[in-house]
């Protein structure tokens, strides 16, 4: 699997109501210094309806100024529709950041 494919698979895992940072996605894709490459991969998103690139923000929680699919206003609308509060173009990462390492696997015990 190449880097872009890894990015797309990781972004598909971000649940509704959560966001991840470009750096976080780069780290999970095995290249922690490639946050700009993550942004480029998402800008070239081949499946905008399937890969929720609107759930990726910068390290400060700021929305993408050049959101590829309609600008930051559209990104904000998509996030707010999922229950993520956006204030002055920022998402509170302490509240909405996705932590895949904390995801629990539920089993019928």
UniProtKB/TrEMBL annotation:
Keywords, comma-separated and alphabetical: DNA damage, DNA repair, Methyltransferase, Transferase
Domain Methylated-DNA-[protein]-cysteine S-methyltransferase DNA binding, first and last residues per copy: 2-84
Annotated coiled-coil segments of the chain: none
rRNA-binding recorded as keyword: no
Signal peptide start-end: none
Reaction(s) catalysed by this chain's protein: a 6-O-methyl-2'-deoxyguanosine in DNA + L-cysteinyl-[protein] = S-methyl-L-cysteinyl-[protein] + a 2'-deoxyguanosine in DNA; a 4-O-methyl-thymidine in DNA + L-cysteinyl-[protein] = a thymidine in DNA + S-methyl-L-cysteinyl-[protein]
Protein name (Swiss-Prot/TrEMBL): MGMT family protein
Source species of the chain: Candidatus Gallacutalibacter pullicola
């Amino acid at each position: 699997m190449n880097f872009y494919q890894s990015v797309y698979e990781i972004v598909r895992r971000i649940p509704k109501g959560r966001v991840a940072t470009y750096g976080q996605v780069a780290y999970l894709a095995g290249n922690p210094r490639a946050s700009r490459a993550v942004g480029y991969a998402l800008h070239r998103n081949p499946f905008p309806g399937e890969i929720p690139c609107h759930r990726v923000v910068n390290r400060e929680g700021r929305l993408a100024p050049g959101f590829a699919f309609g600008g930051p206003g559209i990104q904000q609308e998509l996030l707010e529709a999922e229950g993520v509060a956006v204030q002055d173009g920022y998402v509170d990462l302490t509240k909405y950041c996705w932590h895949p390492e904390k995801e629990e696997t539920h089993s019928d015990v």
